[in-house]
Amino acid sequence: MRTQVVIIGSGPSGLLLGQLLAGIGVENVILERVDRDYVLGRVRAGVLEQGTVDLLDEAGAGARMRAEGLPHDGISLAFDNRLHRIDLAALTGGKRVTVYGQTEVTHDLMDKRSAAGLMTVYDAKNVLPQGFDTASPFVTYEKDGVTHRIDCDFIAGCDGFHGVSRKSVPQDALKLFERAYPFGWLGILAEVPPADHELIYANHPRGFALCSMRSEHRSRYYVQCPIDDKVENWSDERFWDELRLRLPKEAAEKVTVGPSFEKSIAPLRSFVAEPMQFGRLSLVGDAAHIVPPTGAKGLNLAASDVRYLFSGLKEFYLDKSPAGIDAYSGKALSRVWKAVRFSWWMTTMLHRFPDTDAFGQRIQEAELDYLVHSQAAATSLAENYVGLPY
Ligand code: RFL
Ligand code: PHB
């Protein structure tokens, strides 16, 4: 068969791109390695920048987010047994973030896609992008033991960090940048009201902790844990005790405990692959870059990549010009590296590192103190947190 754009991966970046393309009449097919429920079962990001919110609206998938998402005007940094609020809106001329889970974003985009009758092949095995150094690329895959081929104009590699797209480009054409952090995040979801109406990022001698939420009745909490730790080592009781030890008293007292219904450990990593464009194949989102979740940037970067690629494809199809596609990698990477820097900086400032000595600890304390008492420093955090302009 033939289509205009083959999208590999039905995570948020693939689904969002597919929906935007369909909106301007560009045919696309999504090939996804696993099934729909598996994709929806992954609990990940929770904070949307305004640019991501606007893009979901443009894709026609913003209605539930508008109704159920929680707009936040600030966050708190906790250290030295106190909460220090950063007023994001006041520091950025009224910008804010929206708390709405990635699972819900994916769900809304999938519903829109099925309602529009757009083709998605789930359980597509051995997906392989080919011929993307020519003007006639194609993708092969297997489904129920039968091999299929889809010819197209462009291939969008939206298949995450472990996907096939990045692996399919000539490896000597790729430049990789990587930093692994010597700890992980243990996260839980529980059907209890959040400790605060805004997020709390805590630096504590026992390690980092984060209070987040999915709704006014559902909390998402994280604690920094050793990289080789196992979920089985963490009963709910141990988790709640550890979380409360890492929070200032005023926040710890407001933590409502209850049974967790999800518990997992995520490693933290910074990773960038350059370039993000190889002829007719583009890498989008986690396929090209990973950030540690401390700045809440992973999903938002996937959305900004989609915005740049979509405008390039739109220019190609509507104005018959390849200029936008040719500029994709440069534009996307410029924004990616700023978010990589911000996420690395937040991670470095808020976590305990195994090799932090007394000097390093005082530097961390001085940085946090400076941040909450200097308008210039707080403004820098705020403008990055709400999202740099596209
Ligand atoms: P995704 O969401 O990984 O989706 C990729 C999709 O591609 C499919 N796929 C394939 N399909 C066909 N053929 C293949 N060979 C394929 N290989 C893979 C996969 O099944 C999947 O459906 O990438 P996308 O769309 O770029 O979206 C990026 C975001 O998901 C990601 O940046 C964030 O979730 C990162 N992230 C977090 N970001 C935040 O902002 N805040 C968080 O709290 C947060 N927590 C997380 C995270 C990422 C995690 N990962 C990657 C393990 C927690 C975890 C555990
Ligand atoms: C989340 O709610 O999962 C979340 C929020 C903020 C972050 C990371 C994760 O920085």
TrEMBL record:
Matching InterPro entries: FAD-bd, FAD/NAD-bd_sf, HB_mOase, RIFMO-like
Gene Ontology MF terms: 4-hydroxybenzoate 3-monooxygenase activity; FAD binding
EC number of this enzyme: 1.14.13.2
Domain FAD-binding: 2-343
Gene Ontology BP term (one): benzoate catabolic process
Matching Pfam families: FAD_binding_3
Keywords, ordered alphabetically: FAD, Flavoprotein, Monooxygenase, Oxidoreductase
Name of the protein: 4-hydroxybenzoate 3-monooxygenase
